[in-house]
Amino acid sequence: MLRGIQKNMIQIQIRKNRYFETAFFVLRPELSEERGRGKDRDNEMTKEANRILAECNLLSSGHKKKKAGSGRFLSFLYGLLVGASVVALLWLAVLLLA
């Protein structure tokens, strides 16, 4: 934390997010001086901050939830099939060579 330096920021509350509750955007010094130009400038900066958050999927209404176990079940079946195939090939090889 720096003392004696004033930074202007935009604070955005993020709702319905699993990891974050607030995002802070520190304004560049040249924009901080221009900030006093009115609500239009503030609204423009807030919209830009919201756009950046939306791109990062932080502002979305939540995470895309996968169906419980759907990917795991398919992986399990694939592993079971591959494992059974290997065991069958080994068993066949032992029978033919014995």
List the helices and strands and how they pair.
Elements (H helix, E strand, L loop, with lengths): L8 E5 L8 E5 L2 H6 L4 H17 L14 H28 L1
Antiparallel strand pairs: 1-2
Brief digest:
It contains three helices and two strands; from the N terminus they run E-E-H-H-H. The chain is mainly alpha-helical and about 100 residues long.
Task: Round the mean pLDDT to the nearest integer and report it.
Answer: 77
- What is the makeup of the main sheet? 2 strands, antiparallel
Structural class call reads mainly alpha
Helix content estimate: 40-55%
Proportion of strand residues: 5-15%
Question: What is the 3D form?
Answer: rod-shaped
Ends apart, CA distance between termini:
76 Å
**Uncertain regions spanning at least 5 consecutive residues:** none
The total of beta strands comes to 2
What's the quaternary structure here? single chain
SSE succession: EEHHH
Helix tally equals 3
What is the radius of gyration computed over CA atoms, rounded to a whole number of angstroms? 28 Å
Read across the widest sheet, the strand sequence of neighbours is 1-2
Kindly describe this structure:
This protein has 98 residues and is mostly helical. The chain has helices at residues 29-34, 39-55, 70-97; strands spanning 9-13, 22-26. A hairpin with an 8-residue loop joins strand 1 and strand 2. It starts with 8 loop residues before the first strand and ends with a helix.
